[in-house]
Amino acid sequence: MNSSQAATPDQAGAPDPRAQQALPEAVFEEITGMLHAVLGDYGGVDDAGITMDTRFHDDLDLESIDLVTLGGHLQARYGELVNFAEYLAGLGLEEIIGLTVGQLVEHITDCLRAEGER
């Protein structure tokens, strides 16, 4: 590391606020892409119709097999950092039925931030 790259004591270990703000947006875009892949056989999904409040069950009509497929996409993208099956196992039935894209984005960003802090 040269002197222009050296972190000052104030900067050492401090997360970049811009990266912290951009992370949920980037994860949201990735999830949207995954949903296109999962739901593509069913006529696709309208980008404008997916928001952080979109519910997987009620709004997108995802079935349990679709959640398994989404979990496969998450595994391929994030590896062991994001264990979707474990996350779902920690939720009650009503929570799973009401699960939103935003809740999944929050879970993923929390996992990624936790990994970045290690």
List the helices and strands and how they pair.
Layout lengths: L16 H23 L24 H15 L5 H6 L3 H5 L3 H17 L1
- Report the total helices: 5
Number of strands: 0
For the largest beta-sheet, the strand count, sense and barrel status come to: none
Binned, the helix content reads 55-70%
Q: DSSP strand (E) fraction?
A: under 5%
Structural class: mainly alpha
* Computed CA radius of gyration, to the nearest angstrom: 17 Å
- End-to-end separation in angstroms reads 21 Å
What does this structure look like?
With 118 residues, the chain is mainly alpha-helical. 56% of the residues lie in helices and 0% in strands. The chain has helices at residues 17-39, 64-78, 84-89, 93-97, 101-117.
Provide key terms for this protein:
disordered N terminus; globular; 118 residues; mainly alpha
In short:
The chain has 118 residues and is an all-alpha fold.
